[in-house]
Write a structure and sequence with these properties.
alpha+beta, 3 domains, four-stranded antiparallel β-sheet, three-stranded antiparallel β-sheet, 17% strand
């Protein structure tokens, strides 16, 4: 069985109509040079030939302008693009007769994902890594990603030749102040997560403290739930136990892990100030 010449175009059309903002295809073998063993497309789906990547569900300008920290912490919409990935897996198998495996957002162990969606987005030509860490799309900035591994030989896209980061305003700020918006808002030298250096308008050295960032981004998530639960079990005072269990922090953590996946992340500061991630269109 072979794919019709219009298969890749038809696939991307379905992706965009299903809610994706962008869609690209990466060669499954391209991951071998970057991804560790057991986290490559062929490790998850034998015979994998392509990885279809969709991006979208990015925060809106109104999210960045909100003044309530409780609104800001729940602005993520990552599960919406996951639904598009599942839809594409079904479409590939039904329309073309090739195996298709939707890559779930979980992990086999620890913090290592089944497949790096950031790497997949880069290899599919949809974006490039930023000083702050996340992959930025040149036109839409910060996005959430979903991927489908398939045995179908779709036409692959080219990797971006030039990075979206640093954006022109960031290069200008570096010349004036020796820093960029994201490095300034979360400097590693002052307890933050980021540091880096630009030369000739390009990032030549970057540093990202993932462990420190994780404690701030995933505040109301599994780690926070486990910590409060341990403290509660070890607390001998009945009134203090009730305070821990019925307090705002534990309640929000339960809300996050049992009901709303959009409540996972609580810190978007580096993305909030990123000129490449938003602010591309003047809003009223």
């Amino acid at each position: 069985m072979t794919l019709p010449p219009t298969a890749t175009a038809a696939l991307k059309s379905v992706a965009l109509k299903s809610g994706a903002t962008v869609c690209g295809v990466a060669d499954a073998t391209a991951f071998d040079a970057y991804a560790p063993e057991k986290h490559r497309p062929g490790d998850l789906l034998p015979g994998a030939r392509s990885v279809v990547v969709v991006g979208g569900a990015q925060p809106r300008e109104g999210d960045w302008a909100a003044t309530s920290p409780w609104v800001l912490q729940t602005m993520g919409t990552t599960e919406r693009i996951q639904g598009v990935g599942r839809r594409l897996a079904q479409y590939i198998e039904h329309e073309f007769g090739y195996y298709a495996l939707y890559v779930p957002p979980g992990t086999a162990s620890g913090d290592t994902p089944f497949l790096s969606l950031m790497l997949a987005a880069q290899l599919a030509g949809l974006g490039s890594k930023s000083l702050a860490g996340p992959v930025l799309n040149r036109e839409h900035g910060f996005m959430y990603w979903s991927a489908v591994i398939t045995t179908a030989p779709f036409d692959g896209d080219q990797v971006e030749a030039a990075a979206a980061c640093p954006a022109p305003p960031c290069r200008e700020m570096w010349e004036r102040e020796g820093t960029t918006p994201c490095l300034k808002v979360c400097p590693a030298a002052d307890g933050g997560c980021l540091s880096g250096k630009l030369e000739s308008g390009r990032a030549v050295r970057t540093f990202y403290d993932a462990a420190r960032c994780n404690t701030r981004v995933h505040t109301h998530w599994i780690g926070g739930f486990q910590k409060v639960l341990e403290e509660t079990l070890n607390e001998p005072d009945r009134d203090k136990r009730k305070m821990l269990l019925y307090g705002d922090f534990f309640t929000r953590s339960l809300w996050a892990i049992t009901y709303s996946s959009t409540n996972i992340a609580q810190c978007f500061e580096c993305m909030r100030v990123c000129p490449a991630a938003h602010g591309l269109k003047e809003m009223k």
